[in-house]
Amino acid sequence: MKPSRTRRNFLRLAAAVATGAVAAPAFALPLASARRALSFENLHTGEVLDLVYWAEGRYLPDATQRIEYLLRDFRNNKTHAIDPRLLDLLTVLRARLDTRAPFLVISGYRSPETNAMLHRKSEGVATNSLHMQGQAIDIRIADRSLESLHSTALDLKAGGVGCYPRSDFVHVDVGRVRRW
Fold this sequence. Notes:
Elements: H1 3-19, E1 36-42, E2 48-55, E3 58-59, H2 61-70, H3 84-96, E4 103-107, H4 112-121, E5 136-141, H5 146-156, E6 160-164, E7 169-173, E8 178-179
């Protein structure tokens, strides 16, 4: 990334925080000395992952790469960086739900090609979906109801939350706070 772009993004974020346009999330992350772990089962590929992704004050590159691979676009095997805020959101969500069950993944990263194809088939798929930025995931948890997952995610006020009972999943993202 070009230095000017990095600086520009930083300045935009700083201005948004200063003016209150970006609120701090309503959830608290584990203490800096804590380890953060997640478990996933990709329902399309059958792959399972249970790992610590953050320890000793930093994200673990090998772990985040393994998560990125599991959350890849299963239609074309393309991968993308997953926003660490999404991983942290999932960690807090799992803790609030008081479960050790893995997140059952319906959709993680979506390539632009896949997103365009899905958008043509359904009005429910956004043209500029945060899935394409590695900032969204569609999930369920085997030992918790969809309603419980949905209401807990809403309570966090950490981004977008949508419930799709017919398709049996909840969408969570780290974009602006909204619901559907």
